[in-house]
Design a protein that fits this description.
2 domains, four-stranded mixed beta sheet, three-stranded parallel beta sheet, 14% strand, Aspartate Aminotransferase, domain 1, single chain, alpha/beta, Aspartate Aminotransferase, domain 2, 13 helices
């Protein structure tokens, strides 16, 4: 599914030198590479503030903590997402309010968000799933009308553009706070765990920095309860190299997606990923939807036997997870999320796919039919 080893070998001298620099300096915590990467990411995003942290889940938690929501406040987020998005809401004593997703883009339904807003809504957390942005124009209209802050989960869309009129805004820079992960398989990934938050709001940035550092802006003076969440200097050094390749990496993924589109266009039993008009798609995943007449497990096993990996993201929507049964939902409450959970399949997608590999994958898929 991911070929990080080949990607590393292509930039090995730069990566090795960056790691060696950190080791020789012994500045393992908050070393100069952290500041350098922070500045380079801010320039890339056109962000006023970037605050690195330990991982993407921490980023979401810190973002919600910075909003200073009252216990029990409702946070609107999609039902079809990785669990961390909803997990942090519950961990902070807030109430997850799940919304179904758009069947074409897999992203949260803006109409569903509007219906879900109540007088107790404290925040909206859209997830830019699989590499393209949710409908941020409509979500921001709701945000502005109701004075509800928006925290964007950008873990799968770092580098994607959201189109607003004639301008392009990087994913995560539309709402109040953007949160991302640098998990190794992400479009911009390190060689361990890492994450970051970004914002143009000075007050939020100050709060976020303090929360990520034990609630402290000045050493040994703690103005609020915080956490300990730092980006390791070695990981920052790796990311500082890889960010210079990010646009090329995303272009390689888009090229591979176009190959899939072309070669699988005539396979009527599968639906190819659709692109919305208000966002670029950088294909963290290339996710197809199988016709309901197909047995996904049989198809997946066939591919596996032929040497073609595939993955199901996500086999169980949040509302049917045991951990969230207290929300009181049952099967049938979110029909689109449920249908997708039963029918999606993600094909290999990474920066190192070549024509020979893609031909094998697509020919194997076609041979099944």
């Amino acid at each position: 599914m991911v070929d990080l080893n080949t990607q590393y070998k292509k930039i090995k001298p730069e990566i090795d030198q960056a790691m060696q620099d950190v080791i020789e300096s012994s500045a393992f915590i908050n070393g100069p590479h952290v500041k350098s990467f922070q500045e380079n990411l801010a320039n890339y995003l056109n962000a006023k503030h970037v605050i690195p942290c330990a991982n993407g889940t921490d980023a979401l938690q810190i973002a919600l903590m910075s909003l200073e929501l009252k216990p029990g406040a409702e946070v609107i987020t999609p039902d079809f997402t990785f669990i961390s998005t909803v997990e942090v809401i519950k961990l902070l004593g807030l109430k997850p309010v799940l919304v179904d997703v758009d069947e074409n883009t897999f992203n949260i339904s803006a109409k569903g968000v509007k219906k879900a807003v109540t007088s107790n809504t404290g925040a909206i957390v859209p997830v830019h799933l699989f590499g393209q942005c949710a409908d941020m124009s409509e979500i921001m209209k709701i945000s502005e009308e109701q004075n509800i802050p928006v925290v964007e989960d950008v873990a799968q869309a770092t580098g994607a553009d959201f189109y607003s009129g004639d301008s392009a805004i990087k994913a995560g820079m539309v709402g109040d706070i953007g949160c991302t992960s640098f998990f190794p398989s992400k479009n911009l990934g390190c060689y361990g765990d890492g994450g970051a938050l970004y914002t143009n709001n000075d007050d939020l940035a100050q709060r976020i920095r303090a929360i990520a550092n034990h609630g402290s802006n000045k050493k040994y003076y703690h103005d609020r309860v915080g956490v300990n969440s730092r980006l390791d200097t070695i990981q920052a050094a790796i990311l500082d190299v890889k960010i210079t390749y990010l646009d090329n990496y995303n272009a390689a993924r888009q090229w591979a997606a176009s190959f899939y589109d072309r070669e699988l266009a005539d396979v009527k039993q599968i639906r190819l990923p659709k692109r919305n008009s208000y966002s670029s798609h950088i294909f963290h995943q290339y996710t197809i939807v199988l016709d309901e007449s197909l047995n996904r497990d049989d198809f997946k096993e066939y591919l596996n036997q032929k040497g073609v990996p595939s993955m199901v993201y996500y086999p169980v929507p949040v509302h049917l997870q045991k951990a969230f049964k207290e929300l009181g939902h049952s099967k049938g409450d979110f029909p689109v999320s449920e249908k997708l959970s039963e029918s999606v399949l993600s094909l290999p997608m990474h920066t190192e796919l070549d024509e020979e590999q893609l031909e094998k994958i697509t020919e194997t898929i076609k041979s099944y039919f």
